[in-house]
TrEMBL record:
NCBIfam families registered for this protein in UniProt: mnmG_gidA (TIGR00136)
Family to which this protein belongs: Belongs to the MnmG family.
Protein name as annotated: tRNA uridine 5-carboxymethylaminomethyl modification enzyme MnmG
A GO term for molecular function: flavin adenine dinucleotide binding
Pfam families: GIDA, GIDA_C_1st, SAM_GIDA_C
Localization of this protein: Cytoplasm
Organism: Aliarcobacter vitoriensis
Length: 619
């Protein structure tokens, strides 16, 4: 059977890829191992978090499904870093894992142009370094113009629990055993990584009364810009906090010799920022406790996830360490924690479109590209599919720049720098994080979503309306002087704000003070009647006004810089600050402009700065 796009894998990357392809009018086939497991959350029952929330919002603004699904199935919504600046806040939601899967499966089944088929893709059909279809374990063959691999942790997956190992894609699910061997034979650089997950325990055996309650926000905010905020009233299920103790740490350290990550049993590197409990105890031996969050996996069942206690220690050790924790003394374990090793493909094998450089029409998205996390995977799935669709239509690729979106940062980091350990998104990875805030993702990206055909005109109109209100408000605040006249002093005094010397722009006054709704109404009476959510946005705009102007100037400078031509006779050899590896690559590729240089894998913004500086002296 002939398709436009075949997506291999129904995880978080695969869902977005399949839906986007179909919604863009491409005849799409999603092949996945178990249809019931479409949208399964392999690890924590949560979506979003610091920087990950940004990815979900961006995905949503471009027309992805993750935000809508989270709003429909979330059981606790919370803004992380709520007391800090908007640029580093992150939305996070506990999800009902069962409902999340059911929602995603239903959407996939009911999306026109999208077929679903359960099987294992065992082989890519490739001729002259070009993929033209796939072959499955049940010997079915499907032809397609584009193939997107989103195999997650499944390629030659190997589960470790103590000395026991078994082949699996994730606990008790079949692995994908042949695909990565073929990818290696095709010349792609295939490596090995590791990740892990904690035990799940039965709520009926947990003593929550001795733990701290960790609730959701009083006024929860939805993820999706398309969810009606006024009607968003999810039930906020509680999570609980408890701690490991020295007794727990003793049990773990006495069993380091049985921990697969230390015995040499596991070869792949694990996620640095999501370490197992044995790793935390070893690396931070001075700590006398580690925080654990108990999170419900669903609203209907009683399984709880022990966030912070990922482990691949033998089961008897896991049982002992869990029982040593306050409130978990009698915990009944439903599923034990484990680690999994799997094959990934070096993401520097990819172009910015996520198409592989060596095999035409083959795209990779998600954990196969060495990332970790549902959100990172989903973002790549969407981008791979958009680019596959555009390529079918012989249109220009869709590449988000680092100053436009975290998605741009994610993909640029992966394809230019690569990674040797599971890559997760952080706000610190984004140079322009003041511009790239969660709450303005719709303003930044909806136009693209609309032009691509993934966002409706109605949605775009709402965004444009918001943009107009915000820009009018900024204009007003940036042109209104507050002077030190008597009545102004009285005004400031009435809202408890600082005195001013001579005069100050209203936008700066709002930007540098703590302004709530009431104070805002006093200061900007003409905008007193707009809704609170928009007011909050205006205050954020005021707070970042000066910084944003500065960052925008930097971006303009960078854009100009990237256009700079590099003369043929320019030599990179001996430029201080450039590593031999970078020099070698630049000499080999001889990029005609700084922009072309920036597309070469391993050429960092710092390296570009050095070349730029030396070019200026050369020209
Ligand atoms: P997945 O969600 O893994 O989906 C892959 C899909 O592809 C599956 O549906 C599978 O059936 C299908 N598939 C694979 N091969 C084939 C084939 N050949 N033919 C047909 N279908 C195929 N992330 C974190 O952020 N933090 C963590 O602490 C964390 N811990 C984890 C622990 C474990 C044990 C596991 C398994 C994952 C963990 N993750 C964690 C990672 C997170 O689950 C992934 O990053 C995310 O699910 C990746 O999405 P994906 O779409 O790339 O792959």
């Amino acid at each position: 059977m002939q398709y436009d796009i075949i997506v291999v894998g129904g995880g978080h990357a695969g869902i977005e890829a399949a839906l986007a392809g179909a919604r863009l009018g491409k005849k799409t086939l999603l092949i996945t191992m178990l249809v019931e497991q479409i949208g399964a959350a392999s690890c924590n029952p949560a979506i979003g978090g610091l920087a990950k929330g940004h990815l979900v919002r961006e995905l949503d603004a471009l027309g992805g499904e993750m935000g809508l699904c989270t709003d429909a199935t979330g059981i606790q919504f919370r803004i992380l870093n709520g007391s800090k600046g908007a640029a580093v806040q992150g939305s996070r939601a506990q999800i009902d894992m069962d409902k999340y899967r059911a929602y995603m499966r239903e959407v996939c089944h009911n999306t026109p142009n999208l077929d679903i088929y359960q099987d294992e893709v065992s082989e890519l059909l490739v001729k002259n370094d070009e993929v033209f279809g796939v072959k499955t374990k049940l010997t079915e063959e499907f032809l397609a113009k584009k193939v997107i691999l989103t195999t997650g942790t499944f390629m030659r997956g190997l589960v470790h629990i103590g000395e026991n190992t078994y082949s699996a894609g994730r606990a008790w699910e079949l692995p994908s055993s042949t695909l990565s061997i073929q990818l290696k034979e095709l010349g792609l650089n295939v490596g090995r990584l590791k990740t892990g997950t904690p035990s799940r325990i039965d709520a009926n055996s947990i003593d929550f009364s001795v733990m701290d309650l960790h609730g959701g926000d009083v006024n929860p905010a939805p993820f999706s810009f398309r969810t009606d905020k006024t009607k968003f009233k999810p039930t906020q299920y509680p999570c609980y906090v408890t701690y490991t103790n020295l007794g727990t740490h003793d049990i773990i350290s006495q069993n380091f010799h049985r921990a697969p990550i230390y015995t040499g049993q596991i070869e792949g590197l694990g996620p640095r920022y999501c370490p197992s409990i044995e790793d935390k105890v070893k690396r931070f031996s001075e700590r006398d406790r580690h925080q654990l969050f108990l999170e419900p996996q669903t609203s209907m069942c009683t399984e709880y996830y022990i966030n912070g206690m990922s482990s691949s220690l033998p089961i008897e050790v896991q049982k002992k360490m869990i029982h040593s924790v306050r409130g978990l003394e009698n915990a009944r374990i439903v599923r034990y924690g484990y680690a999994i090793e799997y094959d990934y493909v070096d993401p520097t094998e990819l172009k910015h479109t996520l198409e592989t450089k060596k095999i035409k029409n083959l795209y990779h998205a998600g954990q196969i590209n060495a990332t970790t996390g549902y959100e990172e995977a989903a973002a790549q799935g969407l981008m791979a599919s958009i680019n596959a669709s555009l390529s079918i239509d012989e249109k220009e690729p869709f590449i988000l720049r680092r100053d436009e979106a975290y998605i741009g940062v994610l993909i640029d980091d992966l394809v230019t720098k690569g990674t040797h350990e599971p890559y997760r998104m952080f706000t610190s990875r984004a140079e322009y994080r003041l511009l790239l805030r969660e709450e303005n993702a719709d303003l930044r990206l909806s136009q693209y979503g609309y032009e691509l055909g993934l966002i409706s005109k109605e949605q775009l109109d709402k965004v444009e309306e918001k943009r107009k209100i915000l820009s009018d408000a900024v204009e007003l605040m940036a042109s209104t002087w507050i002077t030190s006249k008597k009545e102004t002093l009285e005004l400031l005094d009435s809202i408890g704000e600082e005195k001013i010397n001579d005069k100050v722009l209203l936008i700066d006054l709002i930007g540098r003070n703590t302004i709530d709704n009431q104070k805002f109404n006093t200061l900007v009476p003409t905008l007193a009647n707009i809704d609170e959510y928009t007011k909050e946005q205006i205050i954020i705009e005021a707070k970042y006004y000066r910084y944003i102007q500065k960052q925008q100037k930097q971006i303009e400078k960078m854009k100009k810089m990237l256009k700079l031509r590099i003369p043929d006779e320019f030599s990179y050899k001996g430029l201080p600050g450039l590593s031999n590896e970078v020099v070698e690559k630049l000499e080999k590729h001889r990029p005609p402009t700084l922009y072309n240089a920036s597309l070469i894998s391993g050429i960092t913004p710092a390296a570009l700065d050095i070349i730029h500086l030396n070019l200026n002296m050369f020209l």
